[in-house]
Amino acid sequence: MIADTLAELAAKIVLTLHSDEAIGLHRLMITEAHSFPDLAKRFYRDGPQAYITALNERLPEPDTAQAQALFTLLLGEPHRQRLLGLRAAPSRATAAAHARAALAQLSLTEVIG
User: Fold this and answer.
1) CA–CA separation, 80 and 84 (whole Å)
2) 1 found inside a domain
3) Has residue 77 been placed in a domain?
4) What are phi and psi of 26, to 5 degrees?
5) Whole-angstrom Cα distance, residue 106 to residue 70?
6) Which InterPro entries does this chain map to (predicted)?
7) Residues 6 or more apart in contact with residue 82 via CB below 8 angstroms
């Protein structure tokens, strides 16, 4: 059973992946991926790939390419700015607004509710 709607999951992804903890882990994985390729593969499988799969399961019509595009938009320029220390972690309201904007970019506004 799928617990979250697409919009709820999208907001949780923004809030989680833009958090201080996730940004620190992302920085560490980028630094160490070359030295620990198996760890990098597990990080991708258990993180980004798992989120993309979860998004795909909640799309009105499953579409892996659209789920990947949505995941990319949920990170976006704000995530890059977080990685560089140029932006603070988002509030719940800011994360939800970011998620709504990403869904709108892909014409998924009907699933926002």
Assistant:
1) 6
2) no
3) yes
4) -60, -45
5) 7
6) TetR_C_Proteobacteria
7) 18, 23, 89
Angle (deg, nearest 10), helices 50-58 and 6-17:
160
CA-angle at 29, arms to 85 and 20, nearest 5°: 35
pLDDT tens digits along 8-29: 999 999 999 999 999 999 999 9
Q: What value, to the nearest 5°, has the Cα angle with vertex 13 and ends 88 and 39?
A: 95
Extract the tokens encoding 104.
């709108």
Alpha helices in 61-109 (DSSP H): 64-83, 92-105
Residue 109: predicted pLDDT: 79
CA distance 25 to 23: 5
Round to whole Å and give the CA distance between 70 and 80: 16
* Domain that includes residue 93, residue range: 6-108
The amino acid sitting at 42 is R
The rounded distance, in Å, linking the Cα atoms of 55 and 7 is 9
